[in-house]
Amino acid sequence: MTAMPDVSRGEAVVAALVAELGEKTVLSGAERPARNASDWSTLGPQAPLAVIRPATTEAVAAAMRICARHGVPVVPQGGLTGLCGGARPLPGSVALSLERMTGIEAIDPASATMTVRAGTPLQVVQEAADAAGFLVPLDLGARGSCAIGGNASTNAGGNRVIRYGMTREMILGLEVVLPDGSVVTNLNRMIKNNAGYDLKHLFIGSEGTLGIITRLVLRLFPKPACTFAALCALPDYASVVGLLTAARRGLGPMLSAFEVMWPDYWETVSSMPGVRVPLAQGHAAYCLIEAQGTDEAFDGPRFEAWLEAQTEAGLLADAVLSRSVADVKAFWGVRDACSEFPQVLGTHESFDIGLPVAGMDDYVRACKAALGQRLPGITALFYGHIGDGNLHIVAGVKGAHPQPKDVIQEVVYGLVREFGGTVSAEHGIGLTKKPWLGHVRSEAEIALMRRLKAALDPDGMLNPGKVLPGKDLPGKTLPSEILPGDAV
C-alpha cells in the first residue's frame, strides 16, 4: 500500500527549503530534473516533491533539519546507478542529490590517503589517485557515472575484491549528516585507530537509511607497474576451484581478479559484434585471471611460468596469455560484454548473489534446471567474480513483456537460501530485494537492524521503506512504498 502525500505539508517544506537554501539549490515543479525520479532499477520513475542539490555539508544538514521539522522524508541520491531502487524517490519524499558536492579536497602522500567529497564520480577519484602515483582499486562498469559516496553507502564490490576487498576496506574516515541534521565528522587518516566504536561501519553499506555520507577519507594503494592477464578454458568446475587455489598460492598478492564465465555466457558473447573471443566454444568453464606486479621484467615471466605449470598439471584445456595492455583490455572486453545484454537479449532480470565457491557450479546446474522446468525456453547466463564468491545471473524469456519476474526471483532466491548464499553480494537491498532479505538474514539480525534504524532515525525520515522488509519502525505509518509480497 502507498500512503497519499500531504499536499499542504509538501508545499510548506518546499517553501521552507527554498527560503533557506535558494531556488538554485531547490528545484520543484517543472524544474525537477527527470533523472532524479529513478535510478537504474526497473521500478519506473517516481517524481519527488523537490530535488535538493546542496553544495556543502552545512546545506545538507540544513535541508535535513527542515525536512525533519515538517515530517517529510528524504531520499539521498548519488550517481543514480544503483540497480535495486535504493535511490528511487518514494511518494511524498524529497530527493537530496549530492551531484554538486564534488571534488578532491586533499591527497596526503605520507599517509597514502585521499579526502574527497561524496558526489565525486568514481572515475574522477581514480584519475586523481593515478596522477598522484597511487591507485584507488575500487572499479566497476559504472565508474564514469557512479558517485564515491554511493559506492560507500552500498559497500560496492567490483572487479578486484579478491585482492583489495570491498569498499569498506578502502575507507578510513567519514563525515555524515544524521537524520536530525546533526553532523558527525571523523575524517580519520590513520589505519590504526581503535578509539572506541568505529562508527563509519554503521553507514557503509546502510544504503542511506542511517545517515548521508558527505565526505570520505580513502586509503590509497601503490600503483601497479604492470598488469598481466590470461583467458583460460577449463574441462570442469573442479578445475576452476583447483585453479583458484593455485592462483592464490602461486601468485599471492599479484592476483587481482579471478572471473569465471559458464558456457552459455561464452556462447552468447561469442556472437556479439565487436567482442574478440580468443578461445573456442565447447568447454565447461572459462576463466579470466589478472595479476598486477611491480617489476615487468620479473613478474611477467613469473606469471607465464605459473600459467604453464597449471597446463602441465592438467587444470587447463586451453589458454591465451596477454602480450600487451591492449590484450588485457580485450580480455576484459569479453567479461564486460554483459553491459550490452539489454541490446542482445532484450528485457531480462539480472541478479547479484553470493555463494560458497565450492558449491557454485551445483547451484548453477540446479538453477538452470529449475528455471527451464518452470519457464520452458528461458535464457539463463551465469558469470561473475568467483574468486570472492559473487555470481551474476541474467535470465529472461525472449519476447515476454513483462518478464515473469516473480517466478524467476522465486527460483533464483529460493535456491540461494537452499545453498546457504546471499541475495546481494555487492549491489545492496534497496526496494527490489527487501522481500527476500529474510531468506538470508535471521529474525534476530533483522530485529537488530530495526533497533539501529530506530536509534538513529526515530522518526523514520531518511530513505524510509528501503532495505528492511515491511515498515521501518513497528507501529509507525510512513510515506513508504510497500512492494508486492512484502509483509507489513
Automatic annotation (TrEMBL):
Lineage: Bacteria, Pseudomonadati, Pseudomonadota, Alphaproteobacteria, Hyphomicrobiales
Organism expressing this protein natively: Methylobacterium currus
PROSITE patterns: FAD_PCMH (PS51387)
Family note: Belongs to the FAD-binding oxidoreductase/transferase type 4 family.
A GO MF label: FAD binding
Cofactor(s) required for function per UniProt: FAD
Protein name: FAD-binding oxidoreductase
Disordered: region residues: 466-488
SUPFAM superfamilies hit by this protein: FAD-binding/transporter-associated domain-like (SSF56176), FAD-linked oxidases, C-terminal domain (SSF55103)
Listed InterPro entries: FAD-bd_oxidored_4_C, FAD-bd_PCMH, FAD-bd_PCMH-like_sf, FAD-bd_PCMH_sub2, FAD-linked_Oxase-like_C, FAD-oxidored/transferase_4, Oxid_FAD_bind_N, Vanillyl_alc_oxidase_C-sub2
